[in-house]
Amino acid sequence: MRILVTGASGLLGLNLSLQMIGTHTIVGVDRNKLTGTPFEIVKADLLEAGVCSRLMDEVHPDAIIHTAANADIDSCESDPEGAYLLNAEFPGQLAELCVKRGVRMIHISTDAVFDGTNDSTYTEGDKPNPLSVYAQTKLDGENAVLSVNSDAAVARVNFFGWSLSGTRSLAEFFYSNLSTGQRVNGFTDVWFCTMFVGDLADTLVEMLDKGLSGLYHVVGSEALAKYEFGVKIARQFEFDEGLIQPISVEESGLKAKRSRHLQLSVHKLSTDLGLEIPGVSTGIKKFYTQYSQGYPQKMRSYQQL
User: Fold this and answer.
1) Sign of the dihedral through C-alpha 241, 190, 74, 108
2) How do beta strands 224-225 and 191-192 pair?
3) Which of 103, 141, 197, 217 could tie 161 with a disulfide, CB 3.0–4.6 Å?
4) Does residue 43 contact residue 31 with C-beta atoms inside 8 Å?
């Protein structure tokens, strides 16, 4: 399968592209951050007029995994118009073109579309209530894609792994600080179901292979607090878990509101794929194994200086 991956320099885009080059033909879309990758790169600004058609004409993909977005929550608060263009308007345009060209599509969304006030598990049928500009624009993007392309799949995700810059995931945050003996905060009242990015990449491609369409929660099968996640990272790497200060998100001073309780059901995904969805504990072990094998350094070697 020939897969076009937008946002190829991002945490998900780069990991997915590197992981799938042995089994699929990967073409990544990047603006100017990558060099020397073992997969083909097409340089493009996604907000440039006509870019969707140009990419289709150049690449002739069988499928598109659209990972590109402005995922910086506070940046979206500062520039809501720019966030809307990239996170909401562009995905709809891409989805429409996929229909016309007969290209399958997976659009990446977020668990943050929910407000996190539900103490039970969220299913795909529950009504979203975004708390931030980022979350609202991602929900708008979901709606834009599904309104024009009923064959597309929308994946609400939360994931961690090693990134190009080494600063993109919560796991990297804990690793970077704890490895140098720095104290960090861990939220005891923000719960999530994060998934190792390698497991997410496998799951997304499996969704393409099975021809899934519609809305899916593509997250880990375990829910835990961010403080607990940090402790698991510390224990895996044999860092001092006492460096993690348990605090409430209310004490954090963050600009945008964060959803507190994001436990999402993966029953629909597991049933339709016929697979057990991995949890965070096995994912952290894989995260550590990659570290032991020098994977973070390999990733940074692809960074355009």
Assistant:
1) positive
2) antiparallel
3) 197
4) yes
In 7-16, which positions are buried (b, 16+ CB within 10 angstroms) versus exposed (e)? bbbbbbbbbb
Q: How many of the other CB atoms lie within 10 Å of CB of 295?
A: 17
* Nearest alpha-carbon partner for 187 in 208, 170, 164: 170
Tell me the CA distances in angstroms from 131 to 91, 93, 210, 242, 257, one per residue in order.
Answer: 21, 25, 33, 32, 6
Could you tell me the CATH number of the domain that includes residue 111? Answer: 3.40.50.720
Catalytic pick among 84, 122, 134, 227? 134
Query: Rounded to two decimals, what is the model's pTM?
Result: 0.96
In a domain, 207, yes or no: yes
134 catalytic per annotation: yes
Residue with tokens 């690793």: 175
Instruction: Report the number of distinct structural domains present in the chain.
Output: 1
pLDDT (tens, 9 = 90+) of the chain, 305 residues, equals: 999 999 999 999 999 999 999 999 999 999 999 999 999 999 999 999 999 999 999 999 999 999 999 999 989 999 999 999 999 999 999 999 999 999 999 999 999 999 999 888 999 999 999 999 999 999 999 999 999 999 999 999 999 999 999 888 999 999 999 999 999 999 999 999 999 999 999 999 999 999 999 999 999 999 999 999 999 999 999 999 999 999 998 887 776 677 889 999 999 999 999 999 999 999 999 999 999 999 999 999 999 88
Write out the residue range of the structural domain in which residue 235 sits.
Answer: 2-300
